[in-house]
Structures are given as C-alpha cells and as structure tokens.
Design brief:
The protein is α/β, with parallel strands linked by helices. It folds into two domains: 145 residues, Rossmann fold (3-Layer(aba) Sandwich); 107 residues, Rossmann fold (3-Layer(aba) Sandwich). Helices cover 44% and strands 17% of the residues. The chain is built from eleven helices and ten strands. α1 packs across α10, α2 packs across α3 and α8 crosses α9. The longest helix is centred in the N-terminal third of the chain and has 17 residues. The protein is globular, with a radius of gyration of 18 Å. The mean pLDDT is 93.
Length: 268
C-alpha cells in the first residue's frame, strides 16, 4: 500500500481528507491524528517543527507517497523544514484562502479566524502581502476553539459563546468574507452559518488543497490506477483510538479503521 498520508493535531485535518476522498476515491488514505500533542496552536516554533517531523516520519515509514500537512499551524511553522528533511517525499500544506477571499469581497474587508500560531507565522503574512492589496484583512485568534471541537462540544453553550466572541469583531469591522484558517473550524460550519447569516461568505481551503494533491500526484506519476472502486481509509491516533472513533462516528467524516500510533523518542 502506498497511501496518501495526512496529519493534524486532531480531527480537524479529516475535513481535508474528506475532500481528497471525494476527488480521488480510488486512493488509499492514511491519517494521523496527533491528539497527544493537541492543540498545536499555542506551541513554540521549534517544538512544532519537531512534532511535524515526527508525524511525517511516521507516515513515510508506512509507505506514504505524499504527505498532506492538514493543519494550518503546522504548515505555517514546519512546511519548509519538512521539505528539507524529507526531500524525496512531496508535501502539500494548508494556505489560508486569502487570495479568493480578497478577489470576492464586496466590502473590501476580509476576516481570518485562526489559531494564534497561524496568525503569528510568516505564511499568512506572505499570503496577505501578495494577494490582499487594497483589501483590509482582519485577523482573529481563536484560543480554545480547537479544544472544544476535539472534545466533541460542537453545540455546547461554551462553544457557541466562543464563536460569537470571535466572529463579532469581524462583522463589526464590515467583513463580508471570513476565511476559516484552521482545518478544525469547518466542523463548526453550520453553527458559524447560523451566526453570520447567508450574506457572509465562509471560505474553507480544503477543496483547493484536494485539487493540489491530485495535481501533484498526477505530475509525479503517483496517481493510483483505478483498479477498484474505492481505496481504504485508515486512521491512527497518538491519543485514545476509541475516542477518535467516536468523534468520527458522530460527524460526517469518512469511515475507516482506527489504530494506535506512537511517536515516542521522536518529539523534542
């Protein structure tokens, strides 16, 4: 098996896997949820790079032919470092969709919901400088939101209070387009939509990332021949497999077996 590999701090990156599954149903997919180190968003840069390298190595050792860094925080902190460490493996990372947001805004104001580490990273700043000329970009850090999602608190009063707290400054600033700068946040899309109404555009990078995965596989001759209708989906977690399986069952995510993963001796 030569799967497409994915990793994130938890279940968020499965929103990216879901889009790849829709686009490339014949590919085998291997997902690593590094729940033992979740959340990534408040960790220092050096630690994030070490964690990302350990996750990538785990996937590559299991035959991953391409690795998707299905986490905005890890992409911002470690994507360049991963490509240097593993030059024989193609990597696809997450880029907040500021470019289409800037192109489609009518008010000239774009909001970005993201983790503190993503907002502090060079990647987002570079994307804004390159593609948001003439557009005001309002960043909003969302501490605590990933943790609520990982606990399965999708509809809890505490989660809704955080969403209202983080969305309000963007709406007050006149944003008519909001970028979801964390792969966990699309799991709250119905709740966000209820808060902002139908006139606000909510942008998720996952479909564009899936298109990029397909492109890289095709360019490198790595696309799997359509021998069977559907490839396998395998999940692994550095946390509790039963807990991950329960979360996957509760939300609209591709089903697959769930295994234990260990990164001991790699991180730090």
């Amino acid at each position: 098996m030569q799967p497409v590999g994915f990793f994130d701090s938890g279940i968020g990156g499965i929103t990216v896997l879901r889009e790849v599954r829709r686009l490339l149903p014949g590919e085998d997919l291997l997902y690593l949820a590094d729940q033992a180190h979740c959340p990534y968003g408040s960790r220092p840069l050096d630690e994030l790079r070490a964690i990302a390298a350990a996750c990538a190595a785990w996937l590559i050792e299991r035959g991953a032919k391409l690795v998707v860094v299905a986490c905005n925080t890890a992409s911002a902190a470690a994507l360049t470092d991963l490509r240097r460490r593993f030059p024989d493996t193609p990597f696809v990372g997450m880029v907040p969709p500021v470019k289409p947001a800037a192109a489609h805004t009518r008010s000239g104001v774009v909001g970005v919901l993201a983790t503190p580490a993503t907002l502090a990273g060079d990647l987002l700043r570079d994307v804004i400088e390159q593609w948001a000329n003439g557009v005001r970009v309002v960043p909003q850090a969302c501490p605590g939101l990933v943790e609520h999602i990982e606990e399965g608190m999708f509809d809890s009063p505490a989660t809704m209070a955080l969403l209202r707290q983080y969305v309000a400054p963007l709406l007050d600033a006149g944003a008519d387009t909001i970028v979801l700068g964390c792969t966990h946040y699309p799991l709250l899309l119905p709740r966000l939509r209820a808060l902002v109404g139908n006139d606000i555009r909510l942008l998720d990078a996952a479909p564009a990332v899936a298109q990029r995965v397909a492109q890289v596989l095709r360019e490198r001759g790595l696309t799997r021949a359509p021998i069977r209708m559907s490839g396998s989906v395998t999940y692994a977690t550095t946390g509790d497999p039963a807990r991950l399986a329960d979360l996957i069952d509760r939300i609209d995510l591709p089903r697959g077996r769930v295994e234990q993963a260990r990164l001991e001796g790699r991180v730090g």
